[in-house]
Design goal:
The chain has about 130 residues and is an alpha+beta fold. The protein contains 3 helices and 6 strands. The strands form 2 sheets. It has a 4-stranded mixed sheet, covered by helices on one side. Helix 1 crosses helix 3. The longest helix is centred in the middle third of the chain and has 12 residues.
Length: about 130
């Protein structure tokens, strides 16, 4: 499956837990997915464990548990069945690592080069070096 993230051939997402309320309005899309599309979700992803948990008086969410031990939870509040499916696909397409700040060690300056801006008009042959003692 092309939309499943893997490292060295190992699928990173182990388990998906779908939590919903039996009668809450914000869980309607999750209930629709459970009633109509849950078997399709399981058949498309046979190596993925899908668990459905009913929680009264709680907003719905989709939780992904990864090989690395990281658990990511996404709120499915007021999502329709297609939106919940997109949340599941989003969890499948992640590596299961913490978000990294790639700009952490980046230094932004006005000077493009540490030696100064380059100019084609610098003539080093006529430069006189003066040493002070």
């Amino acid at each position: 499956n092309r939309d499943t993230m893997s490292r060295k051939g190992v699928q990173q997402l182990n388990k998906i837990v779908i939590q919903y309320c039996k009668w809450g309005g914000s869980s309607k899309g999750v209930r629709d997915l459970i009633n109509n599309g849950l078997e399709d979700l399981k058949s498309i992803n046979p190596s993925l464990t899908v668990e459905v948990v009913q929680r009264s008086n709680k907003h719905p969410n989709v939780r992904g548990e990864y090989v690395t031990g990281i658990v990511k939870t996404i709120s499915a509040r007021n999502e329709d069945a297609e939106g919940v499916q997109k949340l599941v696909d989003s969890l499948k397409s992640q590596w299961g690592t913490k978000a990294k700040n790639w700009n952490k060690h980046r230094r932004i300056t006005d000077q493009l080069c540490t030696q100064g801006p380059w100019s084609p008009f610098v003539d080093l042959k006529n430069v006189e070096v003066v040493r002070e003692n």
